[in-house]
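Troubleshooting log. The previous structure file for this entry was overwritten by mistake, so regenerating from the original sequence record. Sequence copied from the archived sheet and checked twice against the printout by T.R.
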Amino acid sequence: MSQQREFLSRLIERFDALGIVQMQGDTLDRDYLRRWATEIGVGDLLGKLLAIGADI
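Regenerated output below.
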């Protein structure tokens, strides 16, 4: 996959994830998400998504 396509694919995935955070709001089990995000090495990314979702 070209670098441009990979970048766009990841950007779309992040927007999808942000949409889920916005739609689910307080019903998300944030502790569970944080635990597994940390486990797979994306805890910082989840933290950013949750912070942005809370601001919108």
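Residues 3-55 form one domain. Archived copy saved in two places this time.
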